[in-house]
Q: What sequence folds into this?
């Protein structure tokens, strides 16, 4: 893997500080994370505690923790472009090992000073993160279908419901739980901060999934969980607004990581195609090999331009609803393109591509979920279609 140079086309449009950050992230990925990939895969995604702590220390030393979190809370205060440049590098790693880099969901930035001090600041230091609990058995991509409720009780709220696929819920210090506050006939979507050890919080399932990632995605039941008014984050009825901001960043993050995966896949597969000989010539000289690589390279270049445009719109303070639609476009395009890229890479590697020690095989399994979580591809298409109707064609595609 060659380091970026000052004359690389990838440098165009970025400041020297941004390029230094990109190179710092790349060095961390290549020297700390990538060497652990096969070990993590063989361990089912779970590394030893000492190894995880070392990853955290290295990430903090490289100033990669808490990227978008303001510096006064211990983060780096990155722009969205800077966040993109780092996320793209982290996406080059299989096994979800970048999950060990200390950070927190943007929802916590809307918390009270007390909530920020209790949950956000320690997360950025690597002392326990968060988990977002929104999906339910009958409410996946449609947040309006959420049945979890919060009824006012003496001095606070009583919460009931069951959440599925709570990513990192098994290791989180705090759960960010979406529930409808019952106010007469009204149902007000609200986010609550609930600690996993609170009375009435029960982990009822720990399902296994296709990928081997560091954290689980447990099913968590809330039975008459009593919380005080200080558990509400962002205000009663503000759940959908905060969730839209969360979804926007998460969807752009999926696109960004997918671009990093495509970068890695193209590097490794192209190197293989140039070195491997069959029938007296390099397999790269066969169009059945070179053309799929060309298609993947084109997908990666186009997806990168789109994701960078969205990041730039965030930094420029563009219309949040238009950014929301554009982030959906980026997630839709890149998540599907990255899946195609991984499939082509496996085919080019042949039998070796089906080994779990091969980067293409791991990405083939891991990238599939990107078309599902944080809103399926079908949901992204609905959002984009609504943007065409409400924002107009020109604003949506330019």
A:
């Amino acid at each position: 893997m060659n380091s970026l140079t000052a004359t690389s086309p990838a440098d165009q449009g970025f400041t020297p500080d941004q390029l230094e950050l990109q190179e710092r992230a790349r060095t961390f990925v290549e020297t700390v994370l990538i060497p652990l990939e096969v070990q993590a895969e063989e361990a089912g995604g779970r590394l030893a505690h000492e190894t995880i702590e070392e990853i955290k220390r290295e990430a903090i030393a490289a100033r990669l923790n808490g990227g978008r979190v303001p510096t006064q809370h211990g983060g780096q205060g990155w722009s969205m472009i800077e966040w993109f440049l780092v996320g793209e590098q982290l996406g080059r790693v299989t096994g979800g090992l970048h999950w060990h880099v200390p950070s927190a969901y943007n929802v916590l930035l809307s918390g009270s000073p007390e909530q920020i001090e209790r949950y956000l600041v320690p997360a950025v230091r690597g002392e326990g993160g968060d988990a977002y609990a929104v999906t339910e058995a009958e409410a996946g991509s449609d947040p309006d279908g959420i049945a979890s409720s919060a009824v006012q009780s003496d001095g606070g709220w009583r919460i009931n419901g069951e959440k599925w696929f709570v990513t990192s819920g098994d290791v989180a210090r705090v759960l960010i739980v979406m529930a409808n506050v019952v106010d007469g006939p009204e149902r007000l979507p609200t986010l609550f901060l609930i600690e996993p050890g609170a009375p009435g919080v029960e982990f009822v399932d720990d399902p296994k999934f296709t990928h081997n990632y560091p954290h689980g995605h447990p099913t968590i039941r809330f039975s008459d969980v009593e919380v005080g008014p200080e558990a509400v984050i962002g205000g009663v009825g503000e759940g959908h607004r905060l969730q839209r901001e969360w979804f926007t960043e998460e969807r752009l993050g999926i696109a960004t990581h997918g671009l990093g995966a495509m970068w890695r896949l193209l590097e490794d597969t192209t190197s293989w195609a140039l070195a491997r000989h069959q029938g007296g010539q390099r397999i790269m000289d066969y169009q059945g090999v070179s053309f799929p690589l060309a298609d993947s390279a084109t997908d990666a270049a186009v997806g990168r331009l789109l994701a960078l445009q969205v990041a730039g719109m965030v930094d420029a303070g563009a219309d949040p609803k238009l950014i929301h639609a554009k982030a959906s476009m980026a997630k839709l395009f890149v998540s599907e393109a990255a899946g195609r890229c991984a499939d082509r890479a496996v085919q080019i590697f042949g039998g070796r591509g089906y080994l779990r020690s091969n980067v293409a095989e791991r990405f083939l399994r891991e990238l599939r979920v990107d078309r599902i979580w944080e809103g399926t591809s079908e949901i992204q298409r609905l959002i984009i279609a609504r943007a065409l109707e409400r924002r107009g064609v020109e604003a949506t595609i330019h």
Remarks:
- Confidence is low (pLDDT under 50) at residues 1-7.
- The radius of gyration is 22 Å.
- Residues 130-236 form a domain with the Butyryl-CoA Dehydrogenase, subunit A; domain 2 fold (CATH 2.40.110.10).
- The chain has three domains: 9-103, 130-236, 240-397.
